[in-house]
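Board notes (copied after class):
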Amino acid sequence: MRESKAKTLWANGEEVLTGWLATNSSLMAEMMAQQDFDAVTIDMQHGVADYSDALSMLQAISTTDATPIVRVPWNDPAIIGRMLDAGAYGIICPMVNSAEECKAFVEACRYYPQGGRSVGPIRAGLYGGADYFANANDTVITFAMIEHKDGVANLDEILSTPGLDAVFVGPSDLAVSMGHTPGFDPKWPDVVEAIEFIAERCKAHGVIPGIHVGSVEYGQKMRDMGYKFQAYLSDFRMTQMAFGKAMPAFRAGQPDATAP
């Protein structure tokens, strides 16, 4: 079966950096996959891609060795199965707040006897290889999103779920659930404490901790905490930020360090 670069890096004790696709462009997916990312994630929850978009984006990502990951809209076995059959090598599932929800998510990603995923890997067989069925349970990465105070309260039970590979912290929703405002890189002490607690408990359970960050500085803090999977901004945010800096400089006739 085709190698999962992400799993290989983790097995060697290294971190995985993922590109994040909020747009629905296969060209953007191809470009992002050719940058220095170890994985590329298609966001079907808050991004604008539908199934047809995501399929072509997975094909574009597969021109490289970046691990293709999809954040599905919700904990629904129908869309989870479709994205795995389309060739996703990892699934990020939003709002996993209990052991029962995590068990249902993991089982949707695994073939019998580890789960109840239906067999029919239409494009996954092309991408993964003829032995896809035999190796999919060991290759597909399951990410449960911890992004609510209830998920933090039930964290040890969630992390004990058989077949759970990783968690992915949604810092914005986590902050909101704790009474704060949304946004990247929360700095409220109680939220930071929760984020650190998640990393510590993941280490104790042998589960990979992941998080979405909006700056290099915050990303380094997360790395120091032990986070081994990080998403840095998104294609949309990076483009928006680049134009936000470049256009005022261009109008003023001033050189801009971010421009070519």
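Comment from the instructor: The two ends are 40 Å apart (CA to CA). The beta strands are 16-21, 39-43, 67-71, 90-93, 141-146, 166-169, 208-213, 229-232.
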